[in-house]
């Protein structure tokens, strides 16, 4: 049940509002502004009904103090002297809305419900923001490893300039995400962002997708179509897998970049375009140039500023951050809260080379969260090809992987739980293996796993 506070110097109003609202809310009421602030400090108040004039005190002057104590509380101002100016001033100070006296109780109830619902939505947005853009991230790109900090520093330098970027990296590293961040944090952020995968579109259709066509330009062209360059005028075009583009289209793309104009198929009219081009590839384009598979002049036009996205195996210290993020994302998506990995399952993930990079990790975690019947995800909840890795250890000497970013307490937790797993959960054997007493082991397990005995 939500709690409501009424601050009004007329005791009769406080009493009548308490009587009207007590069936729906826990209601507090006071005629003293000082006592009202004290109640907000002590109780979790969802909404405050605040009189504009309270025995010589300007009610509006209380709003900043109320919101400083409890930023998530809605303030609804009540006044018998309602004017547009006072209402605007109240809203500027942070009030949710205002009511004019004499009060209509139905209006009061509706406004309180709306304010509480608004607060719930704000809380949900904040929670989603924490999931989608966690603290250790740059505009949604997660990581705090040295490799990622270098990448973030480079993005920070190139995001607000118009120079072309060539983003390189293995499949699944997040090249399109980097391109989106450069657009969304850059000077073209209010204009369109369009992505085109050059490898996913048949060669016969790719030219039309890029440059557009006129009606009747070829069989099946029943109406005029704008290409991606026209559609994205003023914005950013992301050309993924640029190394897959046929040579004859590479020549046309080069001309578009140089002349900043396009000619749709079947037309002789040139159309001026203004776009930033960001290209990406998982190939070594320099080698492709030497083989004659990619135009050298286009390569240098695109590769003004090279941006390399490291594979996951080169930023393994980011695995706990990424794992936590995807557990939150898929827990939220699939309606499962509090999901987390057992250390033995994390150990398997640490030992995996991730040829599919972050995309593969995302798929692994979605699989585990979707199919597990428990909030604790174990080795048997992982995809089969990863479960097999859990049985590849020759003997106990292989140990457990401890990332360098762990604290001493976190490292101790991982090691003790690893030993417990090797001893099949047998606590006496685990204590002997660790050379500590059973009581000492019990104390540590109660500390590390408070929900377990």
UniProtKB/TrEMBL annotation:
It comes from the Bacteria. Keywords: ATP-binding, Nucleotide-binding, Phosphoprotein, Transcription, Transcription regulation. The modification 4-aspartylphosphate is found at residue 51. GO terms for molecular function: ATP binding; sequence-specific DNA binding. PROSITE patterns: RESPONSE_REGULATORY, SIGMA54_INTERACT_1, SIGMA54_INTERACT_3, SIGMA54_INTERACT_4. Residues 141-370 form the Sigma-54 factor interaction domain. Residues 3-116 form the Response regulatory domain. The keyword ATP-binding applies. InterPro entries: AAA+_ATPase, AAA_lid_NorR, CheY-like_superfamily, Homeodomain-like_sf, HTH_Fis, P-loop_NTPase, Sig_transdc_resp-reg_receiver, Sigma_54_int. GO terms for biological process: phosphorelay signal transduction system; regulation of DNA-templated transcription. This is Sigma-54-dependent Fis family transcriptional regulator. It comes from Paenibacillus piri. The lineage of its organism: Bacteria, Bacillati, Bacillota, Bacilli, Bacillales.
């Amino acid at each position: 049940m939500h709690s409501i506070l009424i601050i009004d110097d007329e005791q009769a109003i406080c009493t009548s509002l308490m009587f009207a609202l007590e069936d729906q809310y826990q209601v507090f009421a006071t005629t003293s502004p000082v006592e009202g602030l004290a109640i907000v400090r002590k109780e979790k108040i969802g909404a405050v009904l605040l009189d504009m004039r309270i025995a010589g005190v300007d009610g509006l002057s209380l709003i900043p103090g109320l919101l400083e104590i409890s930023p998530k509380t809605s303030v609804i101002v009540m006044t018998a002297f309602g004017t547009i100016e006072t209402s605007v001033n109240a809203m500027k100070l942070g009030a949710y809305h205002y009511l004019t006296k004499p009060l209509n109780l139905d209006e009061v109830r509706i406004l309180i419900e709306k304010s509480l619902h608004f607060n719930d939505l704000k809380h949900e947005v904040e929670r989603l923001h924490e999931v989608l853009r966690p603290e250790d991230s740059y505009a949604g790109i997660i990581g705090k490893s040295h490799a990622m900090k270098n990448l973030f520093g480079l993005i920070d330098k190139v995001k607000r300039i118009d120079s072309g970027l060539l983003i390189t990296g293995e499949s699944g590293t997040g090249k399109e995400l980097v391109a989106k961040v450069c657009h969304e944090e850059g000077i073209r952020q209010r204009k369109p962002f369009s992505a085109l995968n050059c490898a996913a579109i048949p060669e016969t259709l790719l030219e039309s997708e890029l440059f557009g066509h006129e009606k009747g330009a070829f069989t099946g062209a029943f109406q005029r179509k704008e290409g991606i360059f026209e559609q994205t005028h003023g914005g950013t075009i992301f050309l993924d897998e640029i190394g897959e583009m046929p040579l004859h289209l590479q020549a046309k793309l080069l001309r578009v970049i140089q002349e900043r104009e396009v000619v749709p198929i079947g037309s002789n009219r040139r159309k001026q375009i203004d776009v930033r081009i960001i290209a990406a590839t998982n190939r070594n384009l320099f080698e492709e140039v030497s083989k004659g598979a990619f135009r050298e002049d286009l390569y240098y036009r695109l590769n003004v500023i090279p941006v390399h996205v490291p594979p996951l195996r080169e930023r393994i210290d980011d695995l706990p951050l990424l794992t936590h993020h995807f557990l939150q994302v898929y827990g939220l998506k699939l309606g499962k809260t509090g999901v987390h990995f057992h250390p033995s399952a994390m150990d398997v993930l640490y030992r995996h080379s991730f040829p599919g990079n972050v995309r593969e990790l995302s798929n692994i975690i979605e699989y585990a969260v979707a199919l597990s019947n428990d909030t604790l995800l174990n080795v048997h909840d992982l995809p089969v090809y990863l479960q097999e890795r859990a049985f590849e250890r020759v003997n106990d000497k292989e140990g457990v992987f401890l990332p360098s970013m762990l604290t001493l307490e976190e490292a101790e937790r991982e090691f003790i739980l690893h030993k417990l797993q090797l001893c099949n959960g047998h606590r006496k054997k685990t204590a002997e293996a660790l050379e500590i007493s059973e009581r000492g082991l019990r104390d540590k397990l109660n500390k590390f796993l408070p929900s377990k005995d």
